[in-house]
Amino acid sequence: MLPDHPTARDFEGFLRNPSRSGRGEQNAQMIRHLLTNCSVCCQQLESMGWPSSRLEHLVYLAGTSSQDIEMERPAQNSYNYDRAFEKAEWSVSEFLAASPSPVHSVEQLLAELDEKPFEIQEEFLARDERFANPQVVKKMIDRSHKSRYEDPEKMLHWARLAHTLALQSSQEGAGGAGKLADLRARSGSQLGNALRVAGRLIEAREAMTSSQEYLKQGTGDPALRALMIEQMASLYTFERSFGSAISILDDASEIYRELGESHSLARTLVQEAIASLYAGEPESSIRLLNRAIPLIDQEEDPHLLLAACHNIVLSYIDLDQPEQALELYFKSRELYK
């Protein structure tokens, strides 16, 4: 039997193989500790690099919940916990699986690619299997994301290369079927986002829809799901489907809130505020922006703070309060520089 609090070794056994025969009672005890927000267990998970909220999301998305545990347990305490945790095994084990180290240096590969003209890079990558590994894909996704404000063409270029390589990558290279699906979902969503920025909305929707299918096959990583919701909400906003954008952003906000990722939460609140403003609801926009601004990490993303301040000024203009709008504009003038 386990002592009052599971140890790091107990948690490791659970995370690696939750449905192993005979572990049902132990697994249930761990989940009960987490559901009651046990500070000792939460600290143990934090030290292992696993926030408890992220673990709970993985388990719940894989098919179990606190209600499964508490409501289905008979009075004789003979409930088969193995069944409840069986659905979680694949998701959690795939998420935890270590990805193999790349055979070739990622920096070296990127330097080699950068020597080629943009026009032939996609053709070059198609002929060289060395580039089809997750680390290169993630670097290209990063490049695409960083180009979003300055150069939409580069944003689309890097996103397209990332998704091409993700489709060429293997399960072995990615660290499992679930991680490969996650990689393709992430690259496909970034491609859709880049197509949206380029104004190619039909292609953007096709890419986003395809990436959602990959997400269903993935590990269930809640942070990835939340990010993809954000990108889909941006597409909805461009399509002027403001209600749809607001609705799904609530889901992303809830995930980030439970994961304790305050800056990401702020990002979804700003997006929701912009959609609310476009929908003709400036009061709602102001409420959301006032919640978001204290959560924004200005060093990490000064553009987000600028977007928040800019849109709160616009909201006050729409409310026919130009004095308030002007006062806030003068306070935030440095951000525009």
Beta-strand fraction estimate: under 5%
Structural class: mainly alpha
Order of helices and strands: HHHHHHHHHHHHHHHHHHHH
The geometry reads as globular
Summarize the structure.
The protein is mostly helical.
Can you describe what's shown?
- There is one protein chain.
- This protein has 337 residues and is mostly helical.
- Helix content is 73%, strand content 0%.
- Helix 9 (134-146) runs parallel beside helix 12 (177-197) and helix 14 (222-238) packs parallel to helix 16 (262-278).
- Mean pLDDT is 81; it is low at 61-85.
- The chain has helices at 8-16, 24-35, 39-47, 52-61, 66-71, 81-96, 106-114, 118-126, 134-146, 152-168, 171-174, 177-197, 201-217, 222-238, 242-259, 262-278, 282-292, 302-318, 322-331, 333-336.
- The radius of gyration is 23 Å and the shape is globular.
Distinctive features:
mainly alpha; 73% helix; 337 residues
Describe the secondary-structure layout.
Elements: H1 8-16, H2 24-35, H3 39-47, H4 52-61, H5 66-71, H6 81-96, H7 106-114, H8 118-126, H9 134-146, H10 152-168, H11 171-174, H12 177-197, H13 201-217, H14 222-238, H15 242-259, H16 262-278, H17 282-292, H18 302-318, H19 322-331, H20 333-336
